[in-house]
């Protein structure tokens, strides 16, 4: 039994669900009727050959793209009427590849802004000083968590690529989402930087309140983190279940081998 079907059997409302999710670009259906339930406390890896629809599926969930048909539900609530900003406020957090960083500010300033964006609303003038201290402490704790303390005062534009990727994770943590979405989080990182990111994602998924979705080509990364794999191919969800079983399944071998990408598996 897959993790998702176990949750269904128990009748639990999944943290996140897509129902018949579909998007067309002209005559091309990039994501085609994808139904999937994501359970709290689990990490699901989304894999598939190039052009399978993985990033498009992410864009539909996070609201960067509007679906042609189908829906996305967060804790059972339909998000169709909410765009990307509204979904972020409701707890869908996505690590963007360098696009949500302020390059001319320091690492610490970037994290403080994210903490402020999440926690800074609604405080009154009398509690401002204490609240401000609290925000700074929270930002400093995240700095240490992502091991960027030594870079705190560096301007983001001057950071090596790997540290910028860590900062993206820091900003995601600061936004305190319930759904964490990572799209190839170790892309472009050197071999010695990868374990830090994997540790961070592992820490995030260890919190039973969190639900993690990971798009990843590197199967060693997938195997080290995933509780479950779903496979997209030509926009369809073609396999779903335990990582070892899914990778060994004929349909997955065919999907990859058919695209000449056997080395991924
Ligand atoms: N905005 C768009 N307009 C037209 N076609 C698009 C658009 N976005 C994606 N596509 C097409 O949809 C299909 C799925 O693309 P997508 O980027 O989601 O694949 P992917 O699985 O993430 O691939 P990769 O692993 O290479 O990143 C591709 O054929 C792509 O060309």
From TrEMBL:
Record flagged with keyword Cell membrane:
no
The molecular function terms in GO held by this entry are: ATP binding
Domain ABC transporter, residue spans? 16-259
Checking SUPFAM superfamilies in the record gives: P-loop containing nucleoside triphosphate hydrolases
Under the heading PROSITE patterns, the entry gives:
ABC_TRANSPORTER_2
Keyword annotations from UniProtKB, A to Z: ATP-binding, Nucleotide-binding, Transport
| Record has Nucleotide-binding as a keyword | yes
Which Pfam families does the entry mention?
A: ABC_tran, BCA_ABC_TP_C
InterPro entries for this protein: AAA+_ATPase, ABC_AA/LPS_Transport, ABC_transporter-like_ATP-bd, BCA_ABC_TP_C, P-loop_NTPase
User: From which domain of life does this come?
Assistant: Bacteria
Please identify the protein, giving its name as recorded. Answer: ABC transporter ATP-binding protein
Taxonomic classification, please?
Bacteria, Pseudomonadati, Pseudomonadota, Alphaproteobacteria, Geminicoccales
């Amino acid at each position: 039994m897959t993790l998702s079907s176990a949750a269904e059997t128990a009748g639990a409302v999944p943290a996140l669900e897509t129902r018949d999710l579909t998007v067309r670009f002209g005559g091309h259906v990039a994501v085609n009727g994808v139904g999937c339930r994501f359970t709290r406390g689990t990490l699901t890896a989304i894999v598939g050959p190039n052009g399978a629809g993985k990033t498009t599926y992410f864009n539909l969930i996070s609201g960067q793209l509007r679906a042609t048909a189908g829906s996305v539900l967060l804790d059972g609530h339909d998000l169709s009427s909410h765009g990307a900003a509204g979904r972020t406020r409701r707890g869908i957090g996505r690590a963007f590849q360098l696009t949500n960083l302020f390059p001319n500010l320091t690492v610490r300033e970037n994290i403080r802004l994210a903490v402020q964006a999440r926690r800074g609303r609604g405080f009154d003038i009398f509690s401002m000083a204490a609240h401000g201290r609290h925000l700074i402490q929270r930002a400093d704790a995240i700095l240490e968590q992502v091991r960027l303390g030594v870079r705190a005062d560096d301007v983001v534009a001057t950071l090596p690529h790997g540290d910028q990727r860590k900062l993206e994770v820091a900003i995601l943590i600061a936004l305190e989402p319930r759904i964490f979405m990572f799209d190839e989080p170790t892309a472009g990182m050197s071999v010695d930087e990868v374990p830090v990111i994997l540790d961070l994602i592992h820490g995030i998924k260890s919190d039973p309140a969190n639900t993690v979705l990971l798009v990843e080509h590197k199967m060693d990364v997938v195997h080290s983190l995933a509780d479950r794999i779903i496979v997209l191919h030509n926009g369809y969800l073609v396999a779903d279940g335990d990582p070892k079983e899914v990778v060994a399944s004929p349909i997955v071998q065919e999907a990859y081998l058919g695209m000449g990408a056997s080395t991924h598996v």
